[in-house]
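Notes to self, Aminotransferase class I/II-fold pyridoxal phosphate-dependent enzyme:
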Amino acid sequence: MSALAAQHKAANLGQGFPDEDGPQEMLDIAARMVHEPGATMNQYGPGRGLPELRRAIAADRARRHGHELDPETEIAVTVGATEALAASILGLVEEGSEVVALEPTYDAYPAAVGLAGATLVPVRLQRVQADQDNSAGHTSFALDREAFAAALSPRTSAILLNTPHNPTGTVLSREDLEFIADCIRGTQIVVITDEVYEHLVFEGTHVPFATLTGMRERTVTISSAAKSFNVTGWKIGWAMAPAELLDAVVAAKQFLSYVGATPFQPAVAWALDNAHDWSVQWRDTLERRRTELAEALRDMGMEVFEAPGTYFLISDIAPMFPGESAVDFCTRLPKDAGVAAIPVSVFLADGGPEATDSSCSSWNTLVRWTFCKNDETMATAIDRLRSFTRAAQLR
Ligand code: PMP
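result:
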């Protein structure tokens, strides 16, 4: 979709990377580190990451979430959250076992589970209609507790959680997380939680799974600088877990990349220690853009789901474009409207236009839009979509 967007000079609301920089001081530190006398910053760093970054990660988790970690033994810096995920799955998931994951599923999960020789068992989020238990009055997604419990079996070795969730923007509630915790008490199941959007929550609260009673000892928590500080190109992520679990993650990590880029690490440490105000401002900006995009798409006649977190929201094109799949819609959108977006069916294990089920009759008409682009790009995209949908209505 990004290639199509470039070809047609489309406003790219497809791929989720921001087109604005993070905190200036953070960028300056990274640049200074490259020119540091003695050039140590341009060589391999310690296997688990620079101590100052691990200290800053521990301090940040303790301050914001009360999640206490030993920076020496319980934190490892990785090449983005992507490597932390792959290393956790390769290090902790037994060949032939099953890994339960929420669906729609971020595409790195099935790939890593496949590499580990395990099977991904998807649990599809449920569509909650506006008139059911939804105070904000719009359709939303929620954990399907019954389906989740049914997906667990003696073969389950791990659960992959992602909250705030890509691609739906869902933030799992404390009650849902407690439900999951109750399901696995007394088992050996490991939980790998992907929290890369932890700073980007607009409604509700981000609850780290590791902070629930009894869950710390079995949880690997993954986060990243990418979405927190607008540096998706730096690929600085981290895994946090009790020493025994983390040792297994690091054993896999050291043969994937050995270490990540050194000069970015002091810069990210600075941001974790000092960029709180920037983070709050960025979250507020995203919240405004999310609301503007959601309202615009609703005005155009699409059904728009609640998106309490992340960079993304989902709309159903069915009311506007009956009979058209999201794959076809998103394929013609860059050329016909000058805007790019992503069909949600690419995040489903069974993919494709046949992807339907009883809780959401039309997964194949759902489209993911990002709202992390600058105000000008967002305004251009909305204007173009307005003209495009108006023309479609007149036809
Ligand atoms: N997990 C999720 C849910 C994501 O959306 C992304 C980025 N799109 C990642 C992990 C990867 O993060 P990183 O760039 O730090 O590897």
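- Residues 276-300 form the longest helix (25 residues).
- Residues 16, 80-82, 106, 162, 166, 194, 196, 224, 226, 232, 235, 237 surround 4'-deoxy-4'-aminopyridoxal-5'-phosphate (CB under 6 Å).
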